[in-house]
Amino acid sequence: MFDKFREECGVFGIFRHHEAANLAYLGLYALQHRGQESAGIASTDGRRVRVAREMGYVADVFDEATLNGLQGHAAIGHVRYSTAGSSLLENAQPILIDCAHGQIAICHNGNLVNAGELRADLVREGSIFQTSSDTEVVLHLYARSKAPTPEEAFVESIGQVTGAYSLVMLTSEQLIAARDPHGFRPLALGRLGEAWIVCSETCALDLIGATYVRDVEPGEVIVISEKGLKSRKPYPQAHLSHCIFEHVYFSRPDSYVFGLSVNEVRTSLGRQLAREAPVDADVVVPIPDSGVCAAMGYAEVSGIPFRMGLIRNHYVGRTFIQPQQSIRHFGVKVKLNPVRSILEGRRVVLLDDSIVRGTTSRKIVKLVKAAGAREVHMRISCPPTVSPCFYGVDTPRRSELIAATHTLGEIKKYLQADSLAYLGLEGLLAAVGQQRANYCTSCYTGQYPVEFPRDADKYLQLTLKLQPDPARATGSALANVARQ
Ligand code: SF4
Known about the structure:
Mean pLDDT: 89
Bound molecules: iron/sulfur cluster
Shape: elongated
Helix content: 25-40%
Strand order of the largest sheet: 4-3-5-2-11-10-12
Structural class: alpha+beta
Oligomer: single chain
Number of helices: 18
């Protein structure tokens, strides 16, 4: 319903705990914001790997009986929002296979940019794919590997893929975690008593009472078994490219990601925005929930009071049924309600983390004005998003990104805001401090750190993002959104 980039997935793994599946279930709860289309857990008792996965929220997928069926001392879990591969149960993870190396289940966060190419080669050589997910490519490479052990087979198969991956895999006896050499997506390592945990964000460690140990390093493969934890770095070093959007929007503010507090970074973005784009106003209002931290930072530096002038209904799920045409104008009001006592007669600074197509922002500006706001000054806590992501984030094609095809003045006019300002790229990078060179900023710059295929016939899913949609090719994103 909101016009946002969407994170693809969250992963969780735990080894050596008698309630492994139950803790994986809790971990997935904490990671639910990273994917709401499907959820799954695989567990092992040392002899056999079992899996349960379904479409829907974590709370809907698992009940007591399902969790009781996932016995064992180790488990991995996954929440998914699809990017590569359509949203079907067959693409839900963990994906479990049985091959010459034994059973193995896999969970993946990221996007493999050479998956299409590898898949075509594998199919030519006789492989039969059961899903349209890029992750299955890793399993085929693993199954075909002649390496003597599952660990070596895994290292060999991962060595053939490029792009973004934070992976957790489970065999009957081992938990294996790996992060791509660029470190696009986060992966944290934690401890709970004798148990080891790996997870996308540290908020999952907090929920189960585990302690954060460190991040799984870019290019690192960690193998956890009854013998303990073994770390190795089998791949050539690469330029680091942590996804800066994790700090801007995706990750929960109570998480530490890439070694930094998301809350602190996000608040700094708001502070910097107040320095770069000040405005005379009476109240700073965030678009909840994503704009809250930045709005607090903006209010702190500007001295303008922070108020919750928009209240979000948290109980509108993905199953929300669009009302009939006659009452569709309710639109964004289903999710956001303005607080008239805060907005009426006021000059409002409206804070959000990003604008993708601009459709929702336009509706929200209208909503705030309808509640009596005298002026609405839109402030965005990151630079204009002008390019799609190919590293595990669901983004529309370039022609649909309003900032890719329109000037600041045109966007302001479309939103019907009294002023509009984005945070500059320098300001964004300043918020991550000394690590600024280690971040991917491709969606703001169009400069991609890992080359991706551009053959439209072979790599439709990826290339479509850069090309106009033929069905809607009117030459203007604004023309597209204005018709909706
Ligand atoms: S392109 Fe943007 S969303 Fe994708 S990995 Fe880079 S910073 Fe993150």
